[in-house]
């Protein structure tokens, strides 16, 4: 019998609970309670945020979080000892590693994506770049959803989500000496939280980091004091998700689990996979049962829920949990033999991510900067001091930098005079996205950097793609990783934007600073850049198709627009079921997703708490 078939048979085999042990981490079904008020599927960034807030708000209500991964004692940062510059750390926890189907519009390139397989989710394994989108990104969510959402009580525009960005993190200002050394700027008004999720600025920069900053200024890019307060277009200093004293990674597994225990009503079951949610009497009669299996022996069991189920398995696994539950496109579910519970075509659709090609160069003049990342591999004395500095209190040196904390964010109107011709092509398709791209204050290009050590590279991040992909469970093995079809480049407007971005970035090679360093272009080269067809081929063949920001696969929009959840994050037509993770975003923001995942979790928790208090909890 197949796994899906076995799952349906198992409904009769409900688990009976034993007495509750003192340890909060559960590994056996016999340690669970008879029933729970709330079950959260996934101990990731958003899921643990919600779990923390609900167990705090309702001490008499029991919450269970079910996680595929485990608790890991060490969750090293992007750049922690013993590694060299951005190399794999042997102590890193496991990750999900996805490879998409070949993209026919991108020279059959495949997207490679990773996600956390650990308590803390991707916040425990990501690049630690802790930025937010611009105010216009979040305003566009409401615009994309239409009048039905703009008039609702739960606003997801900038005004509605900004307080939860503030609540979600504790930002620590750098010392006066560090701030002066690196010319850091910030505005504490953008922050203000007291949550044990930390962000701070590194106490170190590579010696050539200011070179590109000077180049960007020569190109006329703005230098805002703060990019986390809604106004982001320009050269940004970005905090890192790390503790301000130890420079160790700060993640949800610490700040929303370990740091808030003990709580008698907060249970975490690890090394178990949620197979599906089950509506024995149909989706109008909720909340559903939660069916899960042990990864140790494959044993299937069910959890009874009194209040609601919150799916927070991430943008790549949430769709498959819903699809295995019979919630999704009827045509797809029928093709793989899953009985239909609810026809929601938007489940697993609308996949978005950031992607793009590089502009790269070499220098012909002597490179006189010290230290550079190459010292980590070639200078044993320097590396030994770096390791010693990381163990000091406060930590100092290269290992406090993570992957870097500076980037430019540039709007399409500031890149090309042809921006209106590009956006006119999409107004009939998606007005909200056209307005976003046409806004001179809304970034559509990101280029992060920490060093320009030869060969130098400036990546062209396409922040607002029009192409849409899908996430579908694998019919051959529905409990394994889903099948990702990125469909990158399928909308030709993406190529038009990328051509404008690459040509804009090439202008850095003509700045006085770069000329003085004898810059020599490696790619794409003048001969290619001056020809539309050749440059488009370069973009389509040389792009990285995922910068690890997948999202939007259970979008917060009306069902008529392909949405899966409403502004209260309840699944359309499924009583007692919500989704809270990066799958609910209608459009990917101009940001790495970690900070937004925390803010979405905080706002979701606020909505849920207020709703249940009205019900008398």
Automatic annotation (TrEMBL):
Pfam families: GMC_oxred_C, GMC_oxred_N. FAD binds at residues 45-46, 118, 274. Residues 314-328 form the Glucose-methanol-choline oxidoreductase N-terminal domain. The keyword Signal applies. The keyword Cell inner membrane does not apply. GO terms for biological process: secondary metabolite biosynthetic process. GO terms for molecular function: flavin adenine dinucleotide binding; oxidoreductase activity, acting on CH-OH group of donors. Residues 1-17 form the signal peptide. PROSITE patterns: GMC_OXRED_2. It comes from the Eukaryota. Its cofactor is FAD. Gene3D superfamilies: FAD/NAD(P)-binding domain, Glucose Oxidase, domain 3. Belongs to the GMC oxidoreductase family. This is Glucose-methanol-choline oxidoreductase N-terminal domain-containing protein.
